[in-house]
Amino acid sequence: MGAMFDWFIEEKRFNSFAAAIEPLRVAAESYISDLEYFYGYCWVCDGMRRMLVRSGAMLGNNPSLREGLLCEGCGLSNRKRLMHSAILEEYARTKTLQGSVLLLEGLSPLYRALAARIPDLIGSEYLGDDCVVGKEYEVPTRGRVRHESLTTLSFGNGSLNLLAHLDILEHVPDYRAALRECFRVLKPGGSMVFTCPFFAQRHEPLIRARVKPDGAIEHLEPPEWHGDPLNKEGILAYYHHGWGLLDDLRAAGFADVRLGVVYDVFSGFVSNNYPGGGYGLMLPIVIRARTTSAKAMASGTKHAI
Ligand SMILES: [Zn+2]
Fold first, then answer.
1. Measured in angstroms, how far is the CA atom of residue 293 from the centroid of ligand 1?
2. Which sign does the torsion angle of CA 105, 10, 90, 292 carry?
3. DSSP states of 139-187 as a string?
4. Closest Cα partner for 192 from 120, 69, 91?
5. Average pLDDT of the residues in 81-106
6. pLDDT tens, residue by residue, 5-15
7. 213 Cβ partners below 8 Å, 6+ apart?
8. Distance between CA atoms of 15 and 196, rounded to whole angstroms?
9. Number of structural domains, the chain?
């Protein structure tokens, strides 16, 4: 069992959903923001747990509840607990495909929580351009971990059942190439589940920065740096993604692409708590992109169900 997702393929139905929950969202999040601890149901721990409301990440004067609501049992935030449910749901569906499962985290509490549920889960981190994909390296004070990059995975064509990553895509300058690379390594009927900051009022991405032919970074918007456990300076966000990302996933070859939402105050699945809502508001969402199953390909059906 896990959180129950509503899955959306386009903006209109999602916007109706968002409008319908808006009064609950505003009331619940202003209530939670004033607490030090929230008592909620953790689907990772499978029980009622105290959740620390503030992680330290702020959005103006509001605590970010996307990075907050840290469960005292498993240590996972709102965003990571939600991904835990999404990954296990897709794992249950794809495990008979007999390929590998890759999480592009290998040193985190989320990796440890999932490794307890998924035998042979492969975890990895991005350790820099000098490292060789597929090789293990020692990270000081953290341990040994495999290096992988979203743009050059070490895996063969069609070798993974499931691929999961969290808040990486906005940091990849050629993200469309990364999506094609993800599609390449997945088996027919396989699945990718991920998060990235999602700006539901946008369609086309906002290009914040780009890499020039000489390798220099050109900033088109004020630089936006995100926290990174393996890099003190943080990492640059190149994009604000919106609904066009779902089109990009389809263009990369994915057949069934959806945005999953769970708005469930009881389980500590709430929005990021962006002040005043609007452009920066992010509901608790994951993105799921499935490839066409072998059976559907054989029968000539375009979309996997
Ligand atoms: Zn927990």
1. 34
2. negative
3. ETTTEEEEE-BTTB-SSPTT-EEEEEEES-GGG-TTHHHHHHHHHHHEE
4. 91
5. 97
6. 999 999 999 99
7. none
8. 19
9. 1
Alpha carbon of 230 to ligand 1 centroid (Å): 23
Residue 1 within a domain: no
Residue 69: domain span: 6-298
Phi then psi for 297, rounded to 5 degrees? -65, -40
Which tokens in the block code for residue 274? 């962006």
Q: What is the band of 303 on the pLDDT scale with cuts at 50, 70, 90?
A: low
Q: Does any domain span residue 303? A: no
Give, as residue ranges, everything with CB less than 5 Å from ion ligand 1: 42, 44-45, 71, 73-74
Q: Which of 178-192, 225-239, 287-301 has the highest mean pLDDT?
A: 178-192
Could you tell me the distance, in angstroms and rounded to a whole number, from the CA of residue 94 to the centre of ligand 1?
A: 25
Residue 244 in tokens: 């066009």
CA of 238 to the centre of ligand 1 (A): 32
Give 37 Cα–ligand 1 centroid separation in angstroms: 13
Tell me the β-bridge partners of 210.
Answer: 218
247-300 tens-digit pLDDT: 999 999 999 999 999 999 999 999 999 999 899 999 999 999 999 988 888 887
Q: What is the CATH number of the domain that holds 245?
A: 3.40.50.150
Residue 101 contacts residue 120 (beta carbons within 8 Å): yes
Q: Which residue type sits at 131?
A: C
Distance 137 CA to ligand 1 centre (A): 29
- Is residue 204 in a domain? yes
